[in-house]
Amino acid sequence: MNIKASKEKTSFRPFAVEQFLSECEHGVTYNFSESGVHPMSYGELIELADIGLEELLAQRVDYPQVNGNELLRDRIAALYDAATASNVLVTVGATEANTLVANTLLESGDNLVCFSPTYEQLAGNAHNRGFDVRWVTQREDDDWAIDLNALASAVDSDTRLIHVVNPNNPTGRVLSQDQRAVLIDQARRVGAWIVADEVYAGTERDTDTPTPSFWGCYERVIAINSTSKAYGLPGLRLGWLLAPDSLIDSLWRRHEYASISASDMSMRLTSAALAPEVRAKLTLRARTLIRRGFDTLASSIATRPEIFSVVPPQASAMSFVRFQLPIRSEELVKRLLHEEDMLVVPGAHFGRENYFRFSSALPEAHLKKGLTKLHALTDRVIGEAGV
After folding, report:
1. What is the pLDDT of residues 287-300, one digit of tens each?
2. Do 348 and 247 lie in a common domain?
3. Per residue in 66-93, pLDDT tens?
4. Are 139 and 145 in contact (CB under 8 A)?
5. I need a labelling partner for 294 at 20 to 30 A (CA). Which of 32, 108, 153, 197 fits?
6. What is the DSSP letter of 50?
7. pTM for the whole thing?
């Protein structure tokens, strides 16, 4: 007997940015599509952290503690005010943390409020499960600040989650104290959870003061982070979330379905990386690459102000570059890939046309060569258009 579904199934929406990277990034010579600082080698990490290689290799290739080993959770908790290891769940990257939040907290009738442009993984999870996703604009003419009036209009009694990436991906914008206060007030007004993706904290460009976490600012906060962006260790695929004790067990139960655990080796290496003296060295490395790289990018595109412009990111390893050419972002990126062996991310994948995301926290010679290639294609596009 055929039974007709009572509710139409929500059409699946692929994760545009990650699909693009999965299909294009491997094998390209000049890759400026990544969103973190230039990755370290295992050898560099082992040397920097003074990890005993013989002791490391003597460990059994076994299942680790599922929620994260105790040393690692202690070191993560130490990064946050008034947090303990019981507030920490170790995940397979920040992406699993986002997925666990969507699967745990969203219930029938709920909506999710997000800010655009942003990294859309949590929003995509919510959409694919049939939830209402409400977008609040960040305005380029206000240095990518949140439209606070739009936020107040978007949040209502059915808002379950307000998702913020701070510092932002792709713009590098850091929320001001006033914006943070308004966001918290809006969440408190309806009892919504703030899900704060803080993977770019520590990548500040103009200050050595880290971007403050939302953890501890409001009783309903889930803070998410990973080793991928600020630490230059994306291949470890190690992330974490902090949540109130009362919520951790529910997230943990879904973690057992999703992945069981992160890898034992990743936990051990991350434990070493988060030792205070090692973490300080990793932060210094990241900020050095970010600051030098952005200066190089800014100097290069400043030679063509009629074509390129950028709101300087306050943090992160990347910039959201605006261009004025007779070509759309996806076509520009496709031509860069095929004609110059170079990859950036089209703004269309963040819902913004005439932009591309460009990662500049890379070795200087490689960065300069890539910028030369960008200008070479720009000249060809202008020549073909007869401009």
Report:
1. 999 999 999 999 99
2. no
3. 999 999 999 999 999 999 999 999 999 9
4. yes
5. 197
6. T
7. 0.94
